[in-house]
Amino acid sequence: MTSSTTPSHGTDTAQSPVARFLKATEIDTRLLGMVGALLLIWLGFHIFGAVFKGQGSFLTPRNLWNLSVQTASIGIMACGMVLIIVTRHIDLSVGSVLGFTAMVMGITQARILPDIFGLGSPMIWIVTCLVGLVVGTAIGAFHGWLVAYRGIPAFIVTLGGLLVWRGAAFLLARGETISPLDSTFSLIGGGPYGSIGATGSWIVGLIACAFILWKLYSGRKNREHHGFPQRPVWAEVFLGVLGCGLVIGATMLVNAYPWPKGIVNQYAAAQGFEVPAEGLFISHGWAIPVLVLIAVGIAMTVLSTRTRFGRYVFAMGGNPDAAELSGINTKLMTVKIFALMGFLTGLSSIVASARLNSATNALGTLDELYVIAAAVIGGTSLAGGVGTIYGAIIGALVMQSLQTGMVLIGFDAALQNIVVGSVLVFAVWVDIIYRKRAK
Amino acid sequence: MSTNPNKGTPLVELRDISIAFGGIKAVDHVSVDLYPGEVVGLLGHNGAGKSTLIKCLSGAYRADSGEVWINGEKAEINNPRDARSYNIETIYQTLALADNLDAASNLFLGRELVGAGGFLDDIAMESETRKIMGRLNPNFRKFNVPVSALSGGQRQSVAIARAVYFNAKILIMDEPTAALGPHETQMVAELIQELKKQGLGIFLIEHDIHAVMDLCDRAVVMKNGQRVGTVNVGDVTDDDILGMIIMGKKPPQAY
């Protein structure tokens, strides 16, 4: 067993400064490409607005804050869809499951729980969320069982699910819309009250910065301990400054978006103080659904890269036979993966219905396509074995940016669909070229 | 008429194994045994049933009838996990590597090292992988790339490392040199000799008759799912074995 490897040293001199920089910092070029595309979209909409509408309204705290909230629901589900697609499956049912779960939760919190706990009890939102998560997980696990133990292709199982759960959502309340929802529950959807304010946002931001710095430091320690090659110090400093800079910048941004006047007055009246004549600047800060998305993103990244479960997911995607022969219980894994997708769909359903403050049987319609598109734009390969959580979240941000941007500059709905569809196909084509050249 | 030269309790006994796929008897009442420190070659045409028989031992298939005995005790092998618990390791013809994962991830697949809190200890796994690869294939350098980027020989060495790392007692090698050049083939041969010295029992599925004559102590020849016969390699010529493979002709030395 010889090897034809070229030595890994000695080629540095031949590389361009950019290549050397990317190598030293270990920044994923695909990630760089996605972020670049995102910034291009943002700038494009802003400039288009500035030129043709007299006012660029995309790159404003208000729009970007709203964008973050609107991305949350799709982003949460996209994290689960990555694992589904990595294992060469697909889930077409997430939109319908979201609608069904929202309807179950709507009925639970508006019609059942008030009789048990009394209207306004804090138990209502807690039990409702639990019910939503359990229902979502159970549906996902059931889909996974059909796929794994009954051998029905995931495409068919979830295509069936797409119809079944949408129909079931309608039947639950005979098509009625359930509104309003529990007031604490609806905070999870965001809005002025569903945000953590300036001080809270700074605390979250500083914790995030501390975490980034600690990660860089402990990673360095760990490599040193095992005698593995280190990144150059300047690259570590650069990554630390970049990471913390992004966190601080984003925190400043969400803090720069004030509550609307009406809400301020309402809040002042409730608290019993006078609003000064020049008005009162109360920051939104990070919205709760965005924090949920970030938490899901971190948890799913840890799960997919640092645990056996995640390793098995990727092994199953890379070579299902090898995974089976390595002693991995691939059938049970499939059930778990779909159950996890269901759990995240339940969570997303909480966010989506809370944001609307109502449960309708149409909630989540077409979400499956946006979720799959987000995962795929984020670099998840439909051939299996390849995909990242952060990619899917950026993918969700790209999809939502396109939609928001087109609404802002006044494209009509038909044109929006044409653009979104074209971008999806284009993004995958670019990705294919990238992969070929990377080989 | 020759007999099995081995005495005592066999490491592995496959007794009267049968398995059929859709009416075709892939393996038809075959019995084979293997002793510690012995290499038993499994020979036959493509489709003779060698790989299928051996997959009943590695847990990839379940036999329709027959028994597996390990160290004189009846063993229940229903899946690859069970086989691993009996210290049976397999190098598959297809290598069974997850192409998108790196060498360390493949080596430890299904048996990952975990650290505090149950999280993967990738650094420890890479470190162990560097150690064993340093022994098996000192030129191996590509630790941080997916195995899809490796050459055939490098991939093979990852598959072999996986089989020998976990203290296998019974090793199944399904055409381990099929994709290799002469130099690499020689290295596999040396490895087999070394493992044999350590007291492992090895089933070797092999088409190259010369490799069989060099490496194996005994050879089992199969044809159309049935066992033609077993010979002590030292008692026969390669023509005798070829006759068994091609015509199913049993020489007098066979039993």
Main features:
heterodimer; A: 439 residues; mainly alpha; ABC transporter involved in vitamin B12 uptake, BtuC; 2 domains; disordered N terminus; B: 255 residues; alpha/beta; 6-stranded mixed β-sheet; 4-stranded antiparallel β-sheet; 8 helices; 10 strands; 24% strand; repeat (chain B); translocase (chain B)
- Round the mean pLDDT of chain B to the nearest integer and report it: 88
Backbone shape of chain B: globular
Structure summary, number of beta strands of chain B:
10
Fraction of residues in H or I helices of chain B: 25-40%
CATH architecture verdict of the largest domain in chain A = Orthogonal Bundle
Mean pLDDT of chain A: 90
Pfam families (chain B): ABC_tran
Membrane topology (chain B): Peripheral membrane protein
Domain ABC transporter (chain B): 12-249
Keywords (chain B): ATP-binding, Cell membrane, Membrane, Nucleotide-binding, Repeat, Sugar transport, Translocase, Transport
Brief summary of the model shown:
Chain A is an all-alpha fold. Chain A contains 16 helices and no strands.
Summarize the structure in words.
The complex is a heterodimer of chains A (439) and B (255). Chain A is built from 16 helices and no strands. Chain A has 439 residues and is mostly helical. The radius of gyration of chain A is 23 Å and the shape is globular. Chain A starts with 16 loop residues before the first helix and ends with a helix. Chain B is of the alpha/beta class. Chain B has a domain at 12-87 and 168-247: Rossmann fold. Chain B is 32% helix and 24% strand. Chain B contains 8 helices and 10 strands. In chain B, helix 4 (122-136) packs across helix 5 (152-165). The mean pLDDT of chain B is 88. Chain A binds chain B through residues 1-5, 7-8, 222-223, 225-226, 228, 302, 306-308, 311-312, 314-315, 317-319, 321-329, 385-386, and chain B through 58, 60, 79-81, 84, 90, 92, 94-101, 105-106, 109-112, 114, 118-120, 123-124, 126-127, 136-137, 139-142, 146, 150-151, 153-154, 156-157, 160, 180-181, 183-184, 187-188.
